[in-house]
Amino acid sequence: MAGEEVTLAEGQAIGQIGTLVELLSSSVSLQIAFVILIVGLIVIGTIYNKFRQWTRTKKFSYSNPMLADIVRRAVLPVLALALISSINIYIQTFELFDDPTEIIQEQLSAELTVGETFAKLLNSMNILVIAFTAGHIITILLEKGERIKQEKEDFKSWQDLNGFKDDENDLFHRCYKWVPPKNPPEEISNKEFNEFLQTPQGRNFLEKFTTSTGARIGSYQKLVKDPFSEWKKSEQKKYEQYYNDCITGENDLGRPLLPGKTPDEIYEIDVWTEEKRSNSYEPIVAGSKPPGYAEKKREGLPKPFRNFIPLGVVLGASLGIIAWWGVDLFVLATASGGIALGVGFALKETFENYFAYMMIRKDKIFVEGERIALASGYKGIVYKITSRVTYIRHPLNESVAIVPTRQLVTSEIINYTKEFAIVPATVEVGVSYLNDPKQVAAALMKVGTRALNEVKDSKGKHLAVQSRCPNIDENKPSCGCDKTFILDLEQPTVRFQKFNDSALDFAIWVYVRDYGSQFKMETDMRMMIYEEFKKYDIRIPWPIRTIYQGDEKKEAKEIDTLNTERKKLIEKYGIGDLLKGDGDSP
Fold first, then answer.
1. DSSP strand pairing (423-431 vs 504-512)
2. Which of 433, 411, 441 is nearest to 570 (CA)?
3. Residue 517 and residue 463 in contact, taking contact as beta carbons nearer than 8 Å
4. H or E element that contains 544
C-alpha cells in the first residue's frame, strides 16, 4: 500500500513537471510569455547592475552604507516581483491559451489546469525571490545589531579617554562636568588637594590623576540629556569632513579621490570607524593610505556566519517548493542518502577542518593578530583562519606556517596574548664581586624607573604597564599604560640571582603591555644598564678561570672612590624588594 502511494506521488509530480515542457511546445502565446519573462529578468539584472554601480558613486553610500545596502538589495527583488506578478496576473486575467479545455484533456494527468500550472511556476519564483530578500534583510538586521554594540564600545572608550584627539571644542567637557571627590586620595595631602581645586590647571590635574591602584578620582555629571547622541553627531561630522577632504583634493595625495572607484580610495564610515578603532582612535587623515589599503588589509579574512543566512533561507524555501509540487521529500532524501554518504567519506577531512574552524570561532581559542606557539615549537602571529587551513606568520616575516585547521584543535597550542597579554621584559647581567650588591640593586632600580617613563613606542605611548602613567606627573593626559594594569605587580623588580663563577648575577624585569613589546624594552634597558654602570663604576667582569693576576686591593680602592655616590643611589631609589617578599614570587 505504501509503495503504491509513493509511486502515485512520484507519478503526479513527474506529470506536473513534465506538463511545463509540454505547455511550452503546445502554445505559441505561452512561449511568448515565457520569452518575455526571461528577457525581462535579463533586463532587470542589467538595470540592477547599473543601479548598484551608480549608488556606489554617491555620498550616502559612504556616509550611510547600511541604508545604501538595503536600497541596493531591495531594487532587484522589487523589480523581479513586479515582472513575475504582472505576467501572472495577465495570464490569469486574459485567455492566453488557444484551447485550454483541449489541452487539459489531452496533456494533463494532474488536477491543475494549464493556466494554474504555469501560475504555480511563477508563484514558485516569487517565493524564491521573497526568501532571498528576507534572508538578506535578516543579515542586515544582525549586522546592525553588531554595529550598535561596537558603537557603544567606542563610546565607552571615548569616555575613558576623556574625548578623542580630533574632537571639536572639547566635546567631552561640554557633555560632562567633573565633580571632585569629598576626600583627597592617599597620594595627595589635604593642603595640596585644596590648592589644586582653586585653579583650572589644578582641577585638570586632579581629573587626570590616577591613584596607585589605577583608579581615577571624582565622578562626572551629565551636562546634556543624551551624551551618546552628541558623540554620534560629532563622529558623523568628522566623517563628513574626511569625505569632503577626499573629494575636494584637500588630502595627503593632493588630488580629488573618486568615490566608487576600484580599488576604493575613500573609506566608508564603517571602515573609517574600524580604522580609528584599530589605531587607538587616532585621527584618520584623508589620502594617507594607498588606494585599496582597507580591502587589502582584510583580504582573505573569513566571512561572518550571518552571510550564510540567505543561502539557508533560500534552501529552506526550495525544499518547501519541491514539496508543494508534489515531490515526496522522504523519497528524495532516501535517493540522495547513498550519494551523501559517499561524499561524506570523501570529504571527511574537509568537514573536520570546517567544524574545527567553527569551534575556534565560537570558543575564540585564538583570533587573527594573536601570538601563538604550535606543538612543533613554531611561534608566530595568527595571520588568517579559514575553514581549511590557518596561516601563522613568523614575527620577523621570515616564513608562514600553513597548518590544517583541525590540527589546531586536537594539539596543544600556547597563546601568548589570550585574556592576559602582560608579559615581563627581563634582562640578566653579571657584576664584579668587588661591587656592593645593594648598590648594584639600586642602580638597576634606577634603570627600571627610567624604563617605565622613557621607553615608548612610535606613538609616544609607554611600553610598560604601570599603576599610574608617568605623564600625569607632568600634568599630561595618560597614554593608557595604566588601563591594563589589573594585577598588583611590583614595577620594576630586581633579583639577585646567584653567585656565578665570574660574577654576581642579577636580573631586572619590567612588565610590558604585550608579548611583542618586551624586545624593545629589553634592548633599551640594556643600553641604560651600560650607561648607569659606567657612570657609577659598576663593573661587568671578564670570565675568570683559575689565575688571577690583577691587584685586588688596587681595584677595590678604585671602586671605593664612588662609594658615597652609590650610597646616595640607595637612599634615593632603594633596593626594591631585594630583601623583602613572602616567597611567592621568583
1. antiparallel
2. 441
3. yes
4. none
Strand partners, 380: 372
What is the model's pLDDT at position 103? 45
Q: Are 79 and 44 in contact (CB under 8 A)?
A: yes
pLDDT given for residue 21 in this prediction: 63
Q: Which three cell numbers stand for residue 341?
A: 554518504
Residues ≥6 apart with Cβ < 8 Å to 532: 443, 446, 447, 538
Residues 562 and 536: beta-carbon distance below 8 Å? yes
Element (H, E) at 190: helix 190-197
Q: How many CB atoms lie within 10 A of CB 37?
A: 18
Alpha-carbon torsion angle 467, 472, 478, 480, nearest 10: -20
End-to-end CA distance of the chain: 81
What's the confidence (pLDDT) of residue 102? Answer: 47
Grid-cell match 519541491, residue found: 322
Task: Give the Cα separation of 113 and 87 in Å (integer).
Answer: 17
The Cα-based distances of 158 to 146, 335, 405, 416 in angstroms read 18, 59, 37, 28
pLDDT score, position 572: 84
Number of other residues whose CB lies within 10 A of the CB of residue 522:
20
CA distances from 161 to 206, 514, 555 (A): 15, 20, 54
Q: CA angle, 411 as apex, 409 and 412 as ends, to 5°?
A: 110
The string over 81-94, giving b where at least 16 C-beta atoms fall within 10 Å of a residue's C-beta and e elsewhere, is: eebbeebbeebeee
The predicted pLDDT at position 507 comes to 95
pLDDT of residue 531: 94
Q: Which amino acid is at 233?
A: K
pTM: 0.62
Is 243 within 8 Å of 59 (Cβ atoms)? yes
What integer pLDDT is reported at residue 532 of this predicted model?
Answer: 94
**Which residues have a Cβ under 8 Å from the Cβ of 451 and sit 6 or more positions away?**
464, 492, 510, 521, 524, 525, 528
CA dihedral 81, 85, 87, 90 (to 10 degrees): -160
Q: Which of 387, 416, 385 minimizes the C-alpha distance to 401? A: 385
The length of the chain is 586
Q: Are strands 493-499 and 504-512 parallel, antiparallel or unpaired?
A: antiparallel
CA distance 464 to 426: 12
pLDDT < 70 stretches in the chain: 1-30, 91-116, 212-214, 294, 296-305, 332, 335, 475, 483-489, 544-551, 577-586
Q: What angle do CA 173, 174, 176 make, to 5 degrees?
A: 55
